[in-house]
Specification:
By secondary structure, this protein is mainly alpha-helical. The protein has a domain of about 130 residues: Arc Repressor Mutant, subunit A. The chain is about 65% helix and about 10% strand. Strands 1-3-2 form a 3-stranded antiparallel sheet.
């Protein structure tokens, strides 16, 4: 959409920011892309603006997102184990230690405390009886879901204020970002050839 000047609303110099902030954004784009094309400079400037918008959105949604985090009495390391298990499903202590970048002995103590709180359980690995697998209990899955889903209702309320055309555009952009995230995730987790 554009207004009568041919510019998209909110993209004219100073729209939504002070003129000084817009100039700072232009200066940043030029520093990151010295001697680059106008298209490269615009791309960098748009990425900077989108990143700042994302930060603002994150702050807005953090009010609701922080509630389950503030209500928990887990330590940060214990919370990391719960959240990692929510993504991994089941993992050995060694897998968790590698995932979180800590030693196996330290991980064992953290898992012991998470298990004692009823958020995870250990079981024998069906393919290797020497390995104990850790997985979330229903209480652990519930806690992880509360944390991951916090802020969803505020997000939906925010989206409800957008017009249909904007919602369609946003759905298209979010779909493309989701595809890109999947592609990047697959590349990050592709085994290296010997």
């Amino acid at each position: 959409m554009s207004d009568q000047t041919g510019e998209r609303p909110g993209t004219s110099p100073g729209a939504g920011t002070s003129a000084g902030n817009n100039q700072a954004g232009n200066d940043t784009a030029e520093r990151r892309n010295p001697g680059g094309t106008t298209e490269d400079s615009e791309r960098t400037l748009l990425i900077d603006r989108l990143a700042e918008s994302q930060r603002g959105l994150g702050r807005f949604l953090a009010r609701d997102r922080s509630m389950p985090l503030l209500a928990t009495t887990l330590t940060m390391q214990q919370l990391k184990v719960v959240m990692s298990l929510s993504f991994l499903g089941s993992a050995s202590g060694q897998d968790l230690a590698r995932e979180l970048g800590i030693g196996l002995a330290t991980m064992t103590g953290i898992v012991d405390r998470v298990v004692a709180r009823g958020l995870a359980s250990r079981r024998e690995d069906p393919t290797d009886r020497r390995v104990r697998r850790v997985e979330l209990t229903p209480a652990g899955r519930d806690l992880a879901a509360q944390i991951l889903d916090a802020g969803a209702s505020t997000w939906r309320d925010l989206l409800a204020h957008l017009d249909l055309e904007t919602l369609r555009d946003l759905e298209r952009v979010m779909g493309r970002l989701t595809e890109l995230m999947a592609d990047l995730h697959a590349k990050d987790h592709t085994p290296c050839a010997p």
